[in-house]
Every structure is written in C-alpha cells, then in structure tokens.
Specification:
The protein has helices spanning 6-25, 48-60, 99-107, 109-118; strands at 34-42, 67-73, 90-96, 122-131. By secondary structure, the chain is of the alpha+beta class.
Length: 133
C-alpha cells in the first residue's frame, strides 16, 4: 500500500469538498419554490396617492391562483448602510410552486391588466427571481 502524505490527503479532501459544494450550487433544488421579488419606483415618489393607487393595483394580483405567498412592502426604517437600497416606493414578494406557476402568472389576464392600468405610475421596476440551491 502506497503511503500518502498528510498534505496530499488534505489537498485531495479539500478538492473533493469543493467539488461537492460546487456541484450542489450548480442548479436549483428540484421542486424548490420560485421567489419573485418586484421593486417599484414611482414617477412621483412623494405622492401618497400614487403609492396608495399602486398598492391597490398590486392587491389585484392576489387573485392569480398560482401564487403561494403574497406580500406587499414599503421600505423599512432600518439604519442607513451602503448595502441598503431604500429608494423604491413599494415592493411585491411572491412565491410560486415552480417556474411553470410563475410563467402562468406572467401571462395571466389579471397581471396584464395590472400593467396596463398602473404602469403609468412607475418610473422603474426591478425584478429579482431566485430559487433555493
């Protein structure tokens, strides 16, 4: 039996651990929910009426049957830090069972009506979609 040095053993073990970790991060977990987080910046950010109208519009999306979780948020009053962006007006956080559920939502008549009726309020929309790994 060939004698292996401690350094060679540790290097080989480390590479194996990195390989396992890297391969587990390569793709989302099967059957993991899709997280869909949307941030809206208003054309008139100081308008309480526009904020209320946008929230009213977002509420209509709740009827889309493929959504599992549904939350509307405003920027939290947390301490200022360089990594925090609190310049948006309203956020929408939803989850879907899978990508197919998300795709149904995107093409749903309620979603399209929301965009048609309320897009005049926002200057920018940013979406972050993610899945567990």
């Amino acid at each position: 039996m060939k004698k292996q040095s401690r350094r060679a053993f540790l290097t080989g073990t480390s590479l194996l651990a990195v390989g396992v970790t890297t391969s587990s991060l390569a793709s989302p977990i099967a059957n993991a929910p899709l997280i869909h987080h949307v941030f809206f910046w208003l054309k008139n950010p100081s308008s309480k009426e526009d904020t209320e109208r946008l929230i009213e519009g977002i509420q209509t999306l709740k009827k889309i049957e493929t959504m599992q979780e549904f939350r509307i948020g405003l920027p939290a009053k947390t301490p200022k830090r360089d990594v925090i962006d609190d310049t948006y007006a309203v956020s929408l956080f939803t989850t879907f069972k899978d990508v197919d559920g998300h795709n149904v939502y995107q093409e749903h008549a309620i979603h399209k009506k929301f965009i048609k009726n309320y897009s005049n309020l926002w200057a920018k929309v940013q979406v972050y979609d993610s899945m567990d790994v």
